[in-house]
Amino acid sequence: MTSHDRTVDDVTAALEDCTTHGTFPLIVTSAGVRDAQGWAARHAQPLRAALHHHGAVVLRGFPVPDEGVFQEVVGALSGGTWAEYQERATPRSHVSGAVFTSTEYPADRSIFVHNESSHVLRWPRHLYFWCDTPAAEGGETPVCDTRRVYRELDPGLRDRFAAEGWIYQRNFGTGIGFSWQSVYGVETFAELEEYCARNHTAVRRDGDNVQVRYRRWATMRHPDTGEDSWFNHGVFFNRWNLEPELQEFADELGESALPYNTLHGDGSPITREVIEEIRAAYDAATVAEPYQAGDVMVVDNIAVAHGRRPYRGRRRILVTMTDPTDGAALAPPALVATPGW
Q1: Is the peptide bond before 324 cis (omega within 30 degrees of 0)?
Q2: Where's the TauD/TfdA-like domain (predicted)?
């Protein structure tokens, strides 16, 4: 056991009125706490230390009856520096304050694991999920240790992506997905051009169709722990990651019209074999803890990716995000340089 391990063990043992078990995610179970917000405020520092080590922490059995108390608990843990959802890619609804629904997606579909907003220049350091109503079956939020993904990927493949990054491509005007106005919060194409210029994004227009491209990182070094992590949306947005029944549709539509796709950082296509190899590394590092009503799961967004399993029955999971971070300040300048066609 290293000195760091001993420090974390001491930290978790110091969380009075609770028991802990597991390592990923760490489960912290209340033993009679009546004031969840007050408890969170007193234990914010040791919980953050435990989060740095474990990557994800579940607070179970605490009195968190509604979204108002959930936001108070998150504020106590984080200091209340809320992060905004930028460059919209999935549907979700505002509930109150800084709280939103989790991604609204058909219950019979899975959502592949991803680090929240890792393709955007500013992204949240920490995510908080609150379970109001667990599904009757399934519906877990799987978590994936992307530090482990980084370590276990083939070094040649990993190092190419680390050096080149990913190119993300989004198409608008095809009748599928969101409009560029709603994604970027603008009304005119001139405003979109200004936004893209500020955010290292190339944009072009052909009649009603608009295409954007931007280069972003594949890996990220944690500013607190110094650990390297596989941190991107590259597989999540890639055409080879579509569910099998959608692959034929993608072939008919053509890659130039797909709402999302990703390329190597030099602009070349990514093969199905490469995506499958990365997916296998994700799968090996992913676990899914079933929700219990009232659970609050805290995720270190650099160290851990998250997704969603299919489910049956009613399910209500709310989300908030904190600690907005400037990715451009952490990544090499070449990995945020505006790409061309």
Answers
A1: no
A2: 39-320
